[in-house]
Design brief:
The protein is an alpha/beta fold. The protein is built from 4 helices and 8 strands, in the order βαββββαβββαα. The chain has 2 domains: 59 residues, 2,3-Dihydroxybiphenyl 1,2-Dioxygenase, domain 1 (Roll), CATH 3.10.180.10; 84 residues, 2,3-Dihydroxybiphenyl 1,2-Dioxygenase, domain 1. 27% of the residues lie in helices and 31% in strands. A hairpin with a 7-residue loop joins strand 2 and strand 3. The chain starts with 10 loop residues before the first strand and ends with a helix.
């Protein structure tokens, strides 16, 4: 059996006691393009594609026996204009966890979502995007790897 390293993340799923409220926050306040989803034997939930990643918010019933936790996973979303993002969320009364700061590789800020999750927003530097571009050129791209992989 061939062992492969994990190279990509395929999905982020948030589980909430109040998925409608949480989805409304991410869709209407943050600007994530969540849509209603239902498939298989799951209860209705909310999802979208963010780049090559599936992002979804599910009710507890879709993960019976798993419960929910707050703060165990941190999310960081890319924004291309942090100043405009901050102005938009502050306009609707969302309080930032800290003012935007420049870390060199990115400018960032954060807020807490309605479930108490700490969510960061990063405006990545040109240097970071050049780093990602070099990775993609070297084959570190999910589609390029899929085309190279043996499939059953």
């Amino acid at each position: 059996m061939k062992s492969e390293k994990i190279e990509f993340l395929s999905a982020i799923l948030l589980v909430s006691k109040e998925p409608e409220r949480l989805a409304a926050f991410y869709r209407d306040v943050i600007g994530i393009p969540l849509e209603d989803e239902t498939h298989g034997e799951t209860f209705p939930h909310y999802g979208c594609e963010l780049g090559d990643l599936h992002f979804a918010i599910h009710p507890l019933e879709n993960f019976e026996g798993r419960g929910v936790g707050t703060g165990s996973v941190k999310l960081a979303f890319t924004v291309f204009d942090l100043e405009a993002f901050v102005a938009r969320v502050e306009k609707v009364g969302v309080k930032l966890a800290y003012p935007p700061k420049d870390l060199g590789f990115a400018k960032m800020t954060a807020l807490d979502d309605p479930d108490g999750n700490h969510v960061e927003f990063t405006q990545l530097s040109d240097g970071w995007f050049k780093h990602l571009e070099k990775r993609r050129e070297s084959g570190a791209d999910v589609i390029a790897r899929w085309k190279q992989s043996p499939r059953a």
